[in-house]
Write a structure and sequence with these properties.
By secondary structure, the chain is α/β, with parallel strands linked by helices. It has 14 helices and 15 strands. β7, α7 and β8 form a beta-alpha-beta unit. α10 packs across α11. The N and C termini lie far apart (50 Å).
Length: 421
């Protein structure tokens, strides 16, 4: 079926905003997406009608607890979890990963080993690096292959030992866009007796996640990257998290997932989280999927991924025509199933920020810099202080927006080169 782009765009009020009569083109999505009206309405409705703390016996506290329960159930459907008990919701992915790293540190001892990749966002690197410093752990670094742009199974297998306790890896890169073969990598790590912690922040807006099929032990994502509010989620396999003792208040609940969710929850944001997931389900229903919410979510990704891939091809084809421009990531259309629609590039002799500033002035929103992909830029030899130009597509973008963006890239680069003469 044709992707219902106009119907989708009508659901996002921000897409119709202008600045002094100038349209906005949102290509900043790897750093955060816009939200449907339904998400904003859910947050507002919670604050105005069910604003209470949890644990009481009056109407608003009972309703607030239902919002919390609904959010955990919605995320379980979104990730394919066995139970809402496996869903831990908190401030953001980085904060939750720090919390989980310290909890897992209680099971480790000096000399134990952890494997970190050169492909990960710093939110899945620094928590483990600092844990290693605290506990005297050995850190083994896993580089990505600069031909495939992925973590290769053989490279992981070569690093594993009988002292490996944890492998932290990402599902998709926030700089190159490459998708790793997480299921295969997880199988190798688990066979060696290691736990696997997956950062799926960049993959979650673009593909259906099935945590049970992946076989990993933990998977983290961020709601504000998939059209929801600013909060993070960690899925943990039930038998693994039930055996852990997190840092928490002495008198707080020992139940799951409450023992990992510190303090008063962000109840209004949980209302928005459920609405974001229901947005995916509604998109799937509009594509004639009338099964479970999980099935409808799956259908929404089926149609949106195909649409995003068409926009990605248009973008990459246009960028590839510019001399001196290097795309850092997969460019073969036959392999677009192995990448998300995040495209980063550099241009010989031009600092990325100068390109981005010019395009931002034209109300084309995108980013420059290392974007917390600290290890990637160092492996590729890109100056961290400059980084890359990063363009990120969401399924609410249009072909016309990509055309306009490409025209701007061509024109801005030509202008900057002329200024250098």
């Amino acid at each position: 079926m044709n992707f219902p782009i106009e119907v989708v765009r009508e659901k996002f009020p921000a897409l119709s905003l202008t600045d002094k009569g100038r349209r906005r083109i949102y290509l900043d999505t790897p750093a955060g997406t816009q939200v449907p009206q339904a998400v904003a309405d859910a947050v507002s409705r919670c604050l105005l009608t069910t604003n209470a703390n949890l644990g009481g016996f009056f109407e608003t506290t009972i309703a607030a607890q239902q919002i919390v329960d609904d959010a955990h159930a919605a995320m379980a459907d979104f990730l394919g979890a066995a139970s809402p008990q496996e869903i831990i919701i908190g401030a953001n992915m980085t904060t939750l990963t720090y919390h989980m790293s310290r909890t897992l540190g209680r099971t480790m001892k000096p000399g134990d080993e952890i494997i970190l990749t050169r492909m990960d966002h710093e939110g899945n690197v620094s928590p483990w690096l600092q844990l290693a410093e605290d506990l005297g752990l050995v850190v083994r670094w896993l580089a990505f292959d600069e031909q495939s742009w992925q973590i290769e199974e053989a490279a992981l297998a070569a690093l594993l030992t009988d002292r490996t306790r944890l492998v932290a890896l990402n599902y998709a890169s926030n700089l190159t866009g490459s998708i790793n073969r997480v299921k295969a990598l997880t199988r190798i790590a688990r066979q060696a007796g290691a736990l696997v912690y997956v950062d799926a922040v960049q993959f979650a807006p673009h593909g259906l996640i099935d945590v049970r099929d992946l076989g990993c032990d933990f998977l983290a994502c961020s709601a504000y990257k998939f059209f929801g509010p600013h909060m993070g989620i960690v899925w943990g396999r039930l038998d693994v998290i039930d055996a852990l003792t997190p840092y928490k208040c002495r008198c707080s609940s020992n139940a799951l997932p409450e023992r990992f969710e510190l303090g008063t929850p962000q109840i209004e944001l949980m209302a928005g989280l459920s609405a974001a997931i229901d947005y995916f389900a509604e998109l799937g229903a509009a594509a004639s999927e009338d099964g479970s919410r999980r099935a409808r979510i799956g259908k929404s990704f089926e149609i949106s991924t195909a649409y995003e891939n068409r926009l990605t091809k248009k973008l990459i084809d246009g960028l590839s025509a510019i001399s001196g421009l290097t795309i850092h990531g997969i460019t073969d259309p036959a392999r677009f199933g192995e990448r998300v629609p995040t495209v980063s590039f550099t241009v010989d002799g031009i600092v990325p920020e100068t390109i981005v500033r010019q395009m931002n002035a034209e109300n084309i929103f995108l980013w420059s810099g290392h974007n917390y992909a600290w290890e990637i830029v160092h492996q590729l030899g890109i100056p961290a202080e400059h980084g890359v130009v990063r363009i990120g597509i969401a399924h609410y973008n249009t072909a016309a927006e990509i055309d306009e963006t490409l025209e701007s890239v061509h024109r801005v680069i030509a202008m900057l080169r002329q200024e250098r003469l």
